[in-house]
């Protein structure tokens, strides 16, 4: 059977996400409606109609303020600000869908693991196993200062902390409660068999947690583990822990380099590389005709905010694009490792399809980056998606939407049927939890080659 594209809607419970300045578009209301439950409920119904696998909720815990050393460019255009807590809209979206799943971003740098484990168990219960956790280590200096730190914790150390954070989480989800602990024995007057509920007594370098886990085991126990990070340390972390990885890369060839590296490293951890699904970005502007798509592109390009794009680039990469002098504009735009994140900086330097000068790099952010957007009629768009899917070696995409919900409606009406005709996209959902839909492990819980499963106690689940 043809390998099929797994599709997530790339979202954020914020005024704007990656559509810089496009709140000015006549058809978008999301910057006013992102705080309304009705907006998320309608979106959920639309996405399930389009057979989307999941909604991927990005998140940040601060304002982007590297560019111009100021928060003003971000605040002015609503760049991922204001941003609400994504967890709260998920149960409402789950209540009007049966199959759509939800990947929620939570940082291991700022929120302690004990409360986070309960949050995900609760969501897994309420959605009947349709939850994933996108593990990030965060990149905004303002986030560090919001959580009482003077500076960001160093990039690689954040991943060391994340490693221990995951160990604590696995203990809570996998080791604290045995299967069958809830006995509900009316005769003996026992609701929960306390011999099957365990403290975890974790004492480590960064965390001390006694337990037991406050939630009883949910369908998946450990939520499907997503990870977003493309640096060498990020990829090593993904290879060890992630069941789904969200990688950045400006070309399908470069994305392939990352997918191959992650799968190779996963093997060295004793994991089956097929137990990792890899995703990258997808941005589409589709019209019934090429001319209509080009008109849409021109209109969006006209409304684009270069300042917001540079502000996002700044926070994600650590480069302040405002600091180059006139004389420096012709210099090559070089990669430098910062304490922020890897993929944005790499996209315009070492991963770019050609070497860029500083001026050329800045120009890429002045408008919608044509190199990273598919513009065309439905067939042209489907051809290009198919090409990117086949060349990059990914299992699916996180689909951006520039105008919400119009971009998603266009995609579902115009592109999905072609991908379905080609056998590249499902026409119906598989039954079961998110993990069962994504994999063939034979159960909802972690497979035995995953490091989290090593913590298991007294759990009677079959696994392939
Ligand atoms: C494709 C992609 C998406 C990401 N999304 C988020 C996000 O929503 N929120 C966030 O705080 N960090 C996000 N990150 C970055 C993570 O915080 C990451 O753990 C950290 O910046 C280091 O990333 P790196 O390994 O690529 O350097 C993302 C990274 C990538 C590659």
CATH homologous superfamily classification:
Luciferase-like domain
SSE arrangement, N to C: EHHEHHEHEHHEEEEEHEHEEHHHHEHEHH
Low-confidence stretches: 460-464
**Portion of residues within helices:** 25-40%
Neighbour order of strands in the largest sheet: 1-2-3-4-9-10-11-14
Distance between the termini: 21 Å
* CATH fold naming: TIM Barrel
Cα gyration radius (Å): 22 Å
Please state the average pLDDT score: 96
> What is the second-level CATH architecture?
Alpha-Beta Barrel
Question: How would you summarize the topology of this molecule?
Answer:
Elements: E1 6-11, H1 30-33, H2 37-49, E2 54-57, H3 72-76, H4 90-95, E3 101-107, H5 113-127, E4 131-136, H6 141-146, H7 155-175, E5 182-185, E6 190-192, E7 202-203, E8 208-209, E9 224-228, H8 232-241, E10 244-246, H9 252-268, E11 277-282, E12 284-286, H10 290-303, H11 306-317, H12 343-347, H13 358-364, E13 374-376, H14 378-392, E14 396-399, H15 406-421, H16 434-438
Parallel strand pairs: 1-2, 1-14, 2-3, 3-4, 4-9, 9-10, 10-11, 11-14, 12-13
Antiparallel strand pairs: 5-6, 7-8
Helix pairs in contact: 5-7, 7-8, 8-9, 9-14, 14-15
Bound molecules: flavin mononucleotide.
Flavin mononucleotide binds at residues 58-60, 105, 107, 136-139, 228-231, 234, 246-248, 341-343.
